Amino acid sequence: MSKIKEYIIDGYKYAVDMDLEKFFKGNLNKGIRLFGEVGTGKIMILKILCEFMLHANKIIAQYSACYVNNIFERRLTKKERLLVSPLFIDDIGTEQPQINVFGTIKQPIYEILNQRYLDKRFLMFVTTNLSPSQIEERYGDRVRNRLKEMFNVMSMQGESRRY
Predict the structure, then answer these.
(1) Which of 60, 80, 96, 103 is the most exposed place for a label (fewest CB within 10 A)?
(2) What is the superkingdom listed in this entry's lineage (predicted)?
(3) CA 40 from centroid of its chain's CA atoms
């Protein structure tokens, strides 16, 4: 079993915990999109959620955004790469936006977000350093608009907590 660093409550994390509490009282049919500066604890929150789901015997998939491109390059079927629920993707925006797969231009993150938007059965949790306007710039207005519908959004503020 993976070991998670100690989660210490302080001023920044207290605010995050209060925001998380709002989500658990809100729409549980939506995933969570955490965005903010580097080192603010986005992936730590998702790792904790992963651990809870694993303890509840949920099958999960967790990938970095860059690894998602790898999945497309290896030409896994749609079912293998898209129909996993919940799906956790870390660092959306760090991947190459387009890749060439045997002569066909693919946009893996866009395709996954779009497919999961169309088929609302599948939860998704993502982290990114991109603001909503940067998401729009990178993936387009359609994706930004759909993300509002798919995710509870939480901004992670503060200085880097990495030591």
Answers:
(1) 103
(2) Bacteria
(3) 15
